[in-house]
Every structure is written in structure tokens, then in C-alpha cells.
Amino acid sequence: MAVDSEPVAQVLILGAGAAGGSAALACAEQGLRVTLVAKGRDLADSNTAHAQGGIIGPAPDDTPELLAADIIAAGDGLSNPQAVRLLAEQGPPLVGSLVIERLGVEFSRAANGTLDLTQEAAHSTRRILHADDATGAAISEKLIAAVRAQPLIRLLQGTAVDLITVPHHSTDPLDIYRENECLGAYLLGETGKVVRLLAPITILATGGLGQIYLHTTNPEGARGDGLAMAARAGATIINAEYVQFHPTAFYHRDADRFLISESMRGEGGRLRTRAGRFFMQDYHPLGDLAPRDVVARAIHQEMLKEGEDFVLLDLSELKVDPRERFPTIHETCLRFGVDITREPIPVVPAAHYFCGGVKVDLEGRSSVRRLYGVGEVSCTGVHGANRLASTSLLEGLLWGQRAGRDAAAQMGKLGDPAYSHVAPWQAAPTAEEIDPALVIQDWVTIKSTMWNYAGIVRSSKRLDRALADLSYLEHRIEQFYRENRLSDNLVGLRNAIQVALIVTRAAQRNQVSRGCHYRID
Predict the structure, then answer these.
(1) Count of Cβ atoms closer than 10 Å to residue 476 Cβ
(2) Is 102 a catalytic residue?
């Protein structure tokens, strides 16, 4: 953190989840020096570590064509066919070579010793590898160990405040990039000082934005930081209206919205009302294994119809012992007084995955020169209007690898960065710290506004109200940002309001209900 003007590495990576870690390893394998920035001290505090269900791997009854068809069907036809084909062809083999062989992740096995393959909603075959119900944590642990063991990777902790951009001038008519190029990022460290981290290539791997919603399965850091920074840098953002809500998050007034894996329905769990009526067959031919957006809306509709705060996931027909197959869920529910071996689980939908993001190509390049995006912050086009279950870890790992290798290939072609044009960070003239009560209240407003007006079910009037309320709030937050001492909370609040507006404006522009963007008007 002492460096404030010299390049810190050849590649700067913001975010240490599956996508960021995969990109860091790929860069280092190509001989590049990497600085990897994690927001907190715990590198495992990411959406990667919270992923329960699994990851698509090599399966005997699967083919790239079958997988691609399922992804496109779940994406409601909006997926990018090239990106889908790439993921379907290269993703499962990468799980074999990188995750199983190199990282040594131990997935659950069947009684005969073969890898246990499970099935989730909208999948046409059993193709999903899992480590009980803590797949993301298992992958994250091994990935972090590999990153720490790589001498070309330097780890830093801090909050990225903004991307560093300078004007990009080109006379090449084939130059695809916009007027800016990225030369690193400004980073807020533990001392409260903002330093410049200069690098010829920057990779955004900052994750999603679930925290802008009242109910979410995402960790605290998933507040859209990378998306907001990229937008301010002039990057193209696409498909921002497509926010996927996971149908089943554990409902308890004293608990965070802990994710209840979709695999539970794949293994025989069924949704019912508190009165005992099974309802999913009324909404889709696939019943409880319908696509996520359909299930989330069905639960939302039943809650409104019945005047209830939650529905129940009935496990009486479960084909497996939940204590063995879903030990994390079993232990968490038990901690809050719900014994899933004897009773159903109270569940509600919750914001889960952002299908849009920074527009990137097949190598992860954004519209800003020298800036890549990988993982949930990016939009490759794979997910279309709705993500197929267990594709997120796969996409992050694959595009992380591709971006890392492409960064090495591009390093000598991009020319010398114009570091002399990068100004030091200009701190606010006051040392005053913002009143935390004001920050808390503004967060409550953002979360409630997005949940009520730009959530699972939308309309023009609801979105108009959201835009009016958020726009008013934006002016106040910008004033806070200019006048108060910079902190992680203040950076996050500013990013959250900007991201909320990006999502809401995209939802207002798109008047066609598709996938996880659903308008009643």
C-alpha cells in the first residue's frame, strides 16, 4: 500500500472470488506479475463461498449441445449463442482439469465411488457436481490456497474507490474501444488514505449487487461496486434489468436470508402453502423444477394470495437423508429452531444473481481499453434473461482463465500506458466523518425501494416511483460523498444508489416481460 505512483503489477485484479482467483492464476501462469485486491481480510467472503448447489462438470449422459440448449431455454432465448457454446464446450472439461485435478477439490461421491451428479431446476439431465451443500466454499478454499502459494501474485486488502482512466485517442478506424482507457484503480486502505494502484491492465471481478435489495442471499460486500465504477469509467452496461431472484431463501426474523439450495427440489422437495396446498404445477409443466424466475414469481403470487410472509418447502418426499446430503442447511436451520428431518422449511424469494453487467467479449474485454470484466460483474451474454442453475461458478472460472491468458497476449500490443496523466487522489477538504445513522437510513431506503418497486414483479408506475425516490436520494448521497471523510460505508452507499438507478432505468426502458424481468403492465 506504500506505492502511490509506480505500477504495482502488470495486472491489477479487483475481487478475489472464483473469477478473480481464476484470472490471477492464469495471469501468473503466463509469467505476469499480479496484484489481487480483496475487499476484506477474509478472502472467502464472496458470493463464491456462499454458493451451495454445485457446478456443472463432466457427465456421462451430457453433451455440449444438450447443455447449451438448457442454458438458452432458461435464458428465454436472449443468450449470446457464441458465449453459450463456449461455456458448454469448454466449461465442464475445465472443471475436470482445473478444479478437480489441479486444485484438488473433493466433490461428493455416490456409494459406488463415482462422482455424485445431481439435477437442478431447468436441467434436462444430472450433470451437477457438488461438495455436499457447500460447493462454493470447497472451491473457494482450494482456489485461495493456490493463489497464496503463487509467488507472482501479491495480495492487498482495501476498498476500490474508482477506476483510474485517461483519454484514449486512436486514429485506427478498427479500434473498438471508447474514449477512455483504464490504468488501474484508486484504493482506500485501512489507514483511511487513498493510493493509486497503477497497472497496464485491470480486471474487474467484484461480484454482484444483491445488497441493493431488502432480501438477498448475497454477502454484505455484494453492493455493485464494480458495476458503478465501470459505469463512471464509461464502460457499456447491458441487461441490467435482469436480476435473478432465488426462489428459496430461509425465512426467519432473526436470520439473514440463507440460501436453501435448489438441489433440495431436485432431490424431491416440493413447495406448498402454509395451508398444505402444493401449487407449482399450477404455474408450469415442470412443477417444482421450473426455471427460477417462474418459481420465484409463483411463490410471490401465493404469498400475496394467502396474505403470508413465506411459503413452505416440504421435504417429506426427499430421496436422500438431508443430514448427509445437506449438512450445512440442516445445521443452519436447526440453529434457528427448524429441524428439517421433521418439518418443512419456511422460505421466501431473495435477490440472488445479476444476469447483466459490464458488456464483455469472449475474452472478457470491456468497451474501455485495458479493462476486463469477469464473473458476476460482467455480462458475457451466457445467461440471457435468466441464469440456469449452477452456471455462475463455471462462467467465472472459465472467463477468468480466458481473460488472464488474453491479458498476457495483449500486454505487448497495447503500448506504453500514459501514467504521467494520472492525478493523485483529491481528498475532501473536511475531516468530518459521516453520521452512521444517516448511512443506515439511506441503505434502508434503497433496499426497500428496490424490493417494492423494482423487484420480482414490476410495472411502469412502480418503476416511476422508484426512479423519483432514488433520484432524490442520489443528490443527497453525492453531497455526503463530497463533504465527508471517505470510508468503505460511504463508498458502498454511493455505488449502491448508482447501481439501483442503473437497474431501475433499464427495467423502465424494457417493456417486454422476459425471464427474470417481469412487468404486470
Answers:
(1) 13
(2) no
pLDDT in tens, 459-498: 999 999 999 999 999 999 998 888 888 999 999 999 999 9
CATH number, domain 436-509, options 3.40.50.300, 1.20.58.100, 3.20.20.80, 3.40.30.10: 1.20.58.100
CA distances from residue 490 to 205, 413, 433, 444 in whole angstroms, order as listed: 21, 38, 10, 14
Domain ranges of the chain: 11-241+355-421, 247-351, 436-509
Which of the residues 265, 292, 365, 514 is marked catalytic? 292
Closest C-alpha among 274, 447, 246 to residue 349:
246
Which cell goes with 62? Answer: 451430457
pLDDT tens, position by position, 412-462:
899 899 999 898 888 776 667 888 999 999 999 999 999 999 999 999 999
State which fold the 11-241+355-421 domain adopts: FAD/NAD(P)-binding domain (3.50.50)
Q: Could you tell me which CATH class the domain 247-351 is placed in? A: alpha beta
Does this model's pTM top 0.85? My answer is: yes
Give the whole-angstrom CA distance, residue 195 versus residue 210. 28
Query: Is 44 strand, coil or helix?
Result: coil
- HSE-CB of 33 using CA atoms within 13 angstroms: 8
